[in-house]
Amino acid sequence: MIYAAILGYGTVGSGVYKVINKNNAIVSKNAGDTLKVKYVLDLREFEGDPVMEVLTHDYNDILNDEEVSIVVETMGGLRPAYQFTKAALEAGKNVCTSNKELVAEHGHELMEIAKAHGVNYMFEASCGGGIPIIRPLMTSLTGDEIEEISGILNGTTNYILTAMAENGSDFDTALKNAQKLGYAELHPEADIEGMDPCRKIAILSSIAYGKAVDYHDIHCEGITKVTADDMKYAAALEAKVKLIASSVKTKSGYAVMVAPYMIIENSPLYSVSGVFNAVYVRGNMLGDSMFYGSGAGSLPTASAVVGDVVDCAKNAGRNIMKIWDEEKIELVPFEKIHSRYIVRVPEKDTKKARELFGDVTTITLTDLEEECAFITDELTEGMFAEKAEQLPDMISYMRVKF
Amino acid sequence: MIYAAILGYGTVGSGVYKVINKNNAIVSKNAGDTLKVKYVLDLREFEGDPVMEVLTHDYNDILNDEEVSIVVETMGGLRPAYQFTKAALEAGKNVCTSNKELVAEHGHELMEIAKAHGVNYMFEASCGGGIPIIRPLMTSLTGDEIEEISGILNGTTNYILTAMAENGSDFDTALKNAQKLGYAELHPEADIEGMDPCRKIAILSSIAYGKAVDYHDIHCEGITKVTADDMKYAAALEAKVKLIASSVKTKSGYAVMVAPYMIIENSPLYSVSGVFNAVYVRGNMLGDSMFYGSGAGSLPTASAVVGDVVDCAKNAGRNIMKIWDEEKIELVPFEKIHSRYIVRVPEKDTKKARELFGDVTTITLTDLEEECAFITDELTEGMFAEKAEQLPDMISYMRVKF
Fold it and tell me: Which of A33, A250, B240, B285 is most buried, most CB within 10 Å of its CB?
């Protein structure tokens, strides 16, 4: 018998409980022995829910029970998740988590602690929900130098952008609707401001490149400034607007950024709609690859957590995680990252725009008569900012991958 | 030092040699020790190629060298690949292969032999080229009951179908062109008749369901009957024609089949074009997921083989492959598999078609005036065949996923 404990009976934690119980025969067969949830830790009561049989309010029940070899941390946030995780690892228990905040902040340290105690700290569910991406990066793409990882790593924002494109609605309306339908949280800042995908691309980059990428060092823009009019240009250009977290090897370091982009059909991420997520990976030998699936949701995320639980069970007493170096990787300074942009200016500024950006082709939409848009050549963020300053009436801009 | 030997210096074998040498620092770091190719076995000479330094014509050089712990079998075909693989495993050497023919035919036996000798028989490159799919199925999707695997598993046929759709060319022209460009072999039967994806879906199904799926038992159709006119209907319906190998859990067993299908934009496989491959997987908890990448080609396939080599090195002395049961899984008999079809009949048969298939909506194309097409409701293959017999002048039919 393999005993697990779940910390936090929220969306993901209750999903993990359900997956382990509902698929117990398969899970146990894959784990090599019967897997049982012995405890669920939560401060709340859940009257009428069978989880009451295993519910505890005291973490020490779990920590002091030597039978529990796997702890599932699905509390989210840094405290007390960090303390609980550390204590579990130091007690020689494996920890599996969906907590990207904790992994992005303390992943290296917690993996080192796990290694020192002959156990594993696993976090497949922290990036891309149910999509297997951490394990493929660690165990499959080991013959390649990874040259790029770009992903749609947040379901909430992709849902909102998809809705805006399909319904013509503005950002606020689309957000409110997403909240009503449960696709956005009441406090959606981490999603809509891009912090959530920012943490995820930091984790994926650290694994892929083998050195630490601190998410605090990454330039990060959300989708709050994307307007219904921007979407009209996207439609006219047969493009889609996606919040893309990208991490690209360049000659002068790694260019890592989170921002909304217009992309066209040649991008594998083009057709990733609604709450789905996808991670594009380019290896120097493999070439293009992509991993696609449910980026959030109780059961898909729980499926990834349970995959980790099974892996911990199969590798009892054996640390198998590829730990990145503590040393930080060299990031290209934001001002030196190269991009192309779509820029919207009032009609009167067309001449000025041509002076600044060269002989650009302008795009005019019939229902936005008093303005025009154009797509720039590739230039650095620094140079773009300089030119943009000279167009104080610029309506909006967005990066493009055309 | 970890010593490997490569059997066969063809497309994939030479790719493996290149990946291990070119990415040696990364590969060795991931493997935990320096990885070196000590032998390449091939009957030919390669004057001027640095491989001459390690070339041998005698397999016994490899078999009797105790330093060689990993054998890469990239010869293809059953003989002598089977004998060589068996001998290597029995000598306590790991074997990594891209040989889908051998895995489909003797995979179970070879995995059992590997297990008995404390080594591994790995074959990530046998399905979907560079796409990581075997390992995710074995180690990531372990919390799920897999309900469906459907894939575009052959680059040659997908290239031909994409070219037919884009250029309006007929099958023979597209095939000849693909041969000229190196995307189709001189003897392309295994690809165009569907045997290659048939073997691959058998392997993937065996892993996913944990019981043997014999590719001889799978109904398999290729793309040789797809015409330029069929493509016109696809275009009119905004559909694409894809050779799909599918494996679906139903109430009465597993429905496994290889055949060309018309699919529409709601399918994740819709935008997989040219030589790319993709595998769609549905789990009962995970929901939809997809794995996309280069399905063939020297370096992408080699990248997958090298991923296996690294995994063998990391797991020296430890069998980690999930072996499916020898017992065969219950397949739905072909006549009882359910599908929908697009059927083309001469104009004169429209009334008869309505009598047989119900009040179907007909589609007429301006440049194919003397015929019409319609899409049937879902019915079994057996029932469809019965009705089709009563339309002896039927022009063509194809299964659809609409």
Answer: B285
Task: Answer whether A294 sits within 8 Å of B302, measured CB to CB.
Answer: no
A200 as an active site residue: the answer is: yes
- We report the CATH number of the domain holding residue A73 as 3.40.50.720
Looking at the domain assignment, is residue A248 inside a domain?
yes
Distance from C-alpha of A35 to C-alpha of A309, rounded to nearest angstrom: 9
* Neighboring chain A residues of B283 at a CB cutoff of 8 Å: 303
pLDDT for A66 equals 98
Of A18, A132, A141, the CB nearest to B141: A132
Query: Do A270 and A141 share a structural domain?
Result: yes
The fraction of chain B above a pLDDT of 70, given in percent, is 100
Instruction: Round the average pLDDT of chain A to a whole number and report it.
Output: 96
Q: What is the ipTM metric for this complex? A: 0.95
Counting the structural domains of chain B, the total is 3
* Domain match, B174 and B108 both: no
| pLDDT of A349 strictly over 90 | yes
If you average pLDDT over residues B378-393, what whole number do you get? 97
Closest residue in B to A122 (Cα) is: B140
User: What is the per-residue pLDDT across B35-90, written as a single tens digit (0 to 9) for each?
Assistant: 999 999 999 999 999 999 999 999 999 999 999 999 999 999 999 999 999 999 99
Question: Do A196 and A78 fall within a single domain?
Answer: no
What confidence tens digit (pLDDT) does each residue in B337-346 have?
A: 999 999 999 9
Mean of the per-residue pLDDT values of chain B: 96
Q: B223 lies in a domain?
A: yes
Query: What residue numbers bound the domain in which B343 lies?
Result: 335-401
pLDDT band at A212 (very low <50, low <70, confident <90, very high): very high
The minimum CA-CA distance between B33 and chain A, rounded to whole Å, is 13
Given A86, A100, A200, A401, which residue is catalytic? Answer: A200
Which residue of A lies nearest to B16 if distances are taken between CA atoms?
Answer: A143
Same domain, A208 and A87: no
On chain B, the residues whose CB falls within 8 A of the CB of A292 are: 268, 288-292
Residue A162 shares a structural domain with residue A284 = yes
Specify the pTM: 0.96
pLDDT of residue A266: 87
Residue in B27, B136, B322 closest to A132 by CB: B136
Do A101 and A167 lie in one domain? The reply is no
Residue A207's pLDDT is 97
Q: How confident is the model at residue B179 (pLDDT cuts 50, 70, 90)?
A: very high
Assess whether A42 and A98 both reside in one domain. Answer: yes
Same domain? B253 vs B195: yes
Give domain status of residue A112, yes or no.
Answer: yes
pLDDT digits (tens, 9 = 90+) for B194-204: 999 999 999 99
Cα–Cα distance between B252 and B258 in angstroms, integer? 19
Average pLDDT over residues A248-263: 97
Distance from CA of B174 to the nearest CA of A (A): 22
For residue A56, the distance in angstroms to the closest alpha carbon of chain B comes to 25
Closest CA to B237 of B381, B377, B400, B394: B400
Query: Residue B393 is part of a domain; what is its CATH number?
Result: 3.30.70.120
